[in-house]
Description:
Helix content: 40-55%
CATH class: Alpha Beta
Number of helices: 7
Number of domains: 1
Number of strands: 7
Amino acid sequence: MSKNTILCMFSGGIDSSGVLHQLITDADYRDRQLVVHHIVLQNRENRAQAELDSVAKIIDYYQKNYSERPFIYTESIFNTSGFAPLSADRFPFDMDVCAFIAGNLAVARKDVRQIAMGRTKTDVASGGDNFRQRMERAQRIFKAVYCLEAESAPNYIFPAINMSKKEIWQMLPTPVQEESWYCRHPQYQSDGSAMPCKQCTTCKEVAKFLPYEE
């Protein structure tokens, strides 16, 4: 185990695909081992399968086409579908779940010294104080998981923070563009494939630079 391993939390969306692409192709990251982790988020948004399908295809693409930059791929499952019978208005934010799982992975693998997350210029510009406060809370969750360890917690890094979602999209290889999933409420077809809802916040954001075909 290298003491400079990067843990990339990967959802299969545009932002995290941009982060993964940077970690694989940018020479500045080549001196560190790479672990890529996907959390199968099972909640009332029902997007776990759509994301998992995208993740499998994107991981396969990078493993086949960038063999000079090997990485370890792992998965975990976080299931809050049991909240439904409680008629709960809220369920855990992705950001909080990601921080919790990342913290535990870093505890389990002490070679992990950096956690790569998919934050973009678009997030910072549009999120305002609410986004900043949620980011700070996620950091506290991450550090709370690590608080009993002898060494200091790994650092978060944001390889795509200076890029907008559109710029990330334009940077990605066409096969990755085609497979990146972004919709919060996928509409599943009879063959099991997923289509974007075109109504959620992320769909509307992506439609600004990637108009939907009628």
